[in-house]
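Fig. S4 source data, part A: sequence.
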Amino acid sequence: MAEPVSIFEEKHEADSGWKIAQPDYDWSFPRDHWAHHGYRTEWWYFTGCLEAVDEPDRRFGYQFTIFRNGLLLPEKPTASSKSTSTNLLVGHAAVSDLSKKDHRFGDLSYGEHPLLSEFRDPPDEIIAWALAPSGTDGRWLLRWNGEAFDFEMRDEARAMAFRLSTRLLKPLVLQGPNGYIRKGEGPTAASHYYSFTRLATDGILTLDGQTWRVRGTSWMDKEFGSSQLSKEQVGWDWFSIQLDDGRDLMLYLQRRKDGTADYRNGTLIATDGTPRYMDAAEWSVQATETWTSPSTKASYPMRWTVDLPAEGFRLEVAPEFPEQENLSRIEGIPFYWEGAVRVLGPNGKSVGRGYVELTGYGENSRPAV
């Protein structure tokens, strides 16, 4: 069997032949839930907060992500070997046991091959699948269930597994006008982007051989393009916030080498799903605490004040616990922080929850996208 592929190549030139995200993209659903092979980079991203049905005090955060990294343009010959991969599939999954403050992360990476991994096309309900990591039977799987998504993973080395099904609580929202957001200078630094900001979620989750029936709420992001970062950028801070009053908030900050954010995108989603795209001047994020990873020595912001003066509120965003860093076991895959957070109002009381992603902190951690 072929060895898993683990290296992201960097080919972001505008003349490389890969399609570039454009503001007039013609969306078509449900087709756009599947892969877009003419674009070099694509991901399906799920995060959420769950509780055990029979043990409500037992709470979990989770992440499930499928990345597609184009290796060959679809119209180009794939060489004489039938085993030549046109895509790289990378899977990331994490579970944070919020009750025990325990975080574990598993990942896999395969060149697309009929025996290893595959991105399918409609009308097939399967969007993507891959063999589970070495030493684990079965597959990681993402499929369209006709309304939303089902997905599953298992990793025996990390003693974790989950199988989750989702359904709509709010309609799909395009992030940025027509689902197009700029992320940096140059023609390629942009993406097509949409979200399902509230998905009812239920299924089973297993840690260390113990299995719970779980339920909760998830957030799903889908992006595709051919370059996400310009040369002067090192990573991003991303916030997905579900407020108790029914509103949702997405904030995306692209960071430069000096730590400043040069491109910022924000969307406030009303209770009925209507988005309001906010100018950068309408909102701010200020880190108030930091945490240094004992594993990577990276220093991450770890508590934030989020101000939206036009909406009349200030939020405090705090991690459920700091130790939610994702460390790959695959050479060449950058580490990053992805964690469940609590959202507090001015009086310190809970007003929501969410997830935060922090990339490009520490040495050798710049995402290769």
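Fig. S4 source data, part B ends here. The CA atoms of residues 202 and 215 lie 4 Å apart.
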